[in-house]
């Protein structure tokens, strides 16, 4: 059974259709990649899915429940959680405090929320930064913190928006390993990424978006051989 189903979901801003009618099924435990040029509608899709933006049309089902038009908090409580391309932790709070804020959405007891947050901080490999101010973290640490804040909500599905952006190649490999282990723990993953080596290594299926629409969808090797995808996004150098 599909964990997430989109049926004709779209989003317009005034006269601009940022996301055309999109129909998609994501089975439980898929690692689903999304690529596309700037302005293709990838972030808009995430914002609609995660409840930051209400769709202009269509229906979204998650785990058999109609989540169309739900708020971000309600959507997250249902198990669908996103990360942001621009990470905005509370810089003058520690890593543990930042994750505990997220953890409070799951656990009412302050002790339980804090214990859960500490376990998640360890889970993402930030143990040595547990009591460091978030503002002092290097970029790779901020990426881990962003993942921790999402994982603290115990998602069934996580939407990752360019989690590798801004990292140098040597910093990417450990984060890719972390994404793999999160997936191995049973979390369904949908991710937007521009780093093609990571896209190819991680995606079980790959969606290419262009001008708010699906340009191609299928196995990654098939998709990147598609001439329309090469013309619109990859360029001849990649093929
Ligand atoms: N809040 C908004 N108001 C008006 N237009 C918007 C808004 N958000 C996005 N857009 C427009 O919608 C289109 C899709 O933008 P979106 O950010 O979803 O693309 P993207 O594929 O995520 O691009 P990028 O790779 O640069 O992040 C763009 O033309 C953008 O300018």
From TrEMBL:
Cited Pfam families: ABC_tran, BCA_ABC_TP_C
GO molecular function, one term: L-valine transmembrane transporter activity
Record key words, sorted: ATP-binding, Nucleotide-binding, Transport
Residue ranges of domain ABC transporter in the record: 4-236
GO biological-process terms attached to the record: D-alanine transmembrane transport; L-alanine transport; L-isoleucine import across plasma membrane; L-valine import across plasma membrane
CDD domains: ABC_Mj1267_LivG_branched
GO CC list: plasma membrane
InterPro entries found in the cross-reference section: AAA+_ATPase, ABC_AA/LPS_Transport, ABC_transporter-like_ATP-bd, BCA_ABC_TP_C, P-loop_NTPase
PANTHER family per record: AMINO ACID ABC TRANSPORTER ATP-BINDING PROTEIN, CONSERVED COMPONENT OF ABC TRANSPORTER FOR NATURAL AMINO ACIDS-RELATED
Record-given protein name: ABC transporter ATP-binding protein
């Amino acid at each position: 059974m599909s964990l997430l189903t989109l049926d004709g979901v779209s989003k317009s801003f005034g006269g601009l259709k940022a996301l055309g009618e999109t129909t998609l099924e994501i089975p439980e435990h898929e690692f689903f990649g999304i690529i596309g040029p700037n302005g293709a509608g990838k972030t808009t899709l995430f914002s609609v899915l995660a409840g930051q933006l209400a769709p202009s049309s269509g229906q979204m089902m998650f785990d058999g429940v109609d989540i169309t038009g739900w708020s971000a908090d309600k959507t997250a409580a249902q198990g669908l959680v996103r990360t942001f391309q621009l990470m905005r932790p509370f810089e003058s709070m520690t890593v543990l405090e930042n994750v505990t804020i997220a953890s409070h959405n799951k656990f009412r007891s302050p002790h339980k929320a804090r214990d859960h947050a500490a376990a998640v901080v360890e889970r993402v490999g930030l143990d040595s930064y547990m009591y460091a101010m978030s503002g002092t973290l290097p970029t790779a640490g901020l990426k881990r913190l962003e993942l921790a804040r999402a994982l603290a909500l115990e998602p069934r599905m996580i939407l990752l928006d360019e989690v590798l952006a801004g990292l140098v190649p040597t910093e990417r490999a450990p984060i890719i390993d972390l994404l793999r282990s999160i997936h191995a723990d049973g979390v369904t993953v949908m991710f937007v990424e521009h780093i093609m080596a990571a896209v190819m290594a991680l995606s079980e299926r790959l969606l290419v978006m262009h001008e708010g629409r699906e340009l191609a969808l299928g196995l990654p090797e098939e998709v990147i051989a598609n001439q329309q995808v090469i013309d619109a996004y990859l360029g001849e150098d990649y093929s």
